[in-house]
Amino acid sequence: MKVWARYAVPVMILVDEAQDSIERVVMVPGERFIDRGTMGDMLFYTEELEQLSSSEQQAAHALYIGDTDRWPDPTEWEIEDIFGGLIDRVHELRNPPCPACDGEGYLWHEDDDDAEGVPCRRCAANSVIDRDLGRHADAPDLDEHGQPWPSVT
């Protein structure tokens, strides 16, 4: 099992009160500590980013192995703008794009650049277009009645 341990790294901002502006934003990666939720529990997640109780054996192991002294140099860190960005990346690794439409949810006629996109039959058969634009590669190539779609080209 792989476990995410959530740490906090301080970010300092220097505010110029006279100018009502932010002068500097500085991340202090040397001051890292395990992050805690509102109830004081340390934050751990499964590989799929579902929260894991800090009392689980896997959480304790992740805390031990993930000691900050073992971390790579901050120049090697991956940066995500928001936590949701990490969730999206994990989701994409677990659910690769549909091979028929490359995850766009629509197919385009090769000989007509101005043609409107046709909904991907594989994704539309499972209502994937409404859910998440075709990230279910195992969806059958069938319509809602279980019948094969006619060719699109």
Short structural summary:
The chain has helices at 57-65, 83-94, 121-124, 128-132, and strands spanning 3-5, 7-8, 11-16, 21-27, 33-34, 44-46, 51-52, 106-107, 118-119.
Largest sheet: 3 strands, antiparallel
Q: Supply the number of helical segments.
A: 4
Order of strands across the widest beta sheet?
1-6-7
Radius of gyration: 23 Å
- Mean pLDDT comes to 78
Tell me the span between the first and last alpha carbons. Answer: 44 Å
**Which stretches are poorly predicted, pLDDT < 50 over at least 5 residues?**
128-137
H/E element sequence: EEEEEEEHHEEHH
Can you give the helix content as a percent range? Answer: 10-25%
Descriptors:
4 helices, 20% helix, 153 residues, three-stranded antiparallel β-sheet, flat, 9 strands, alpha+beta
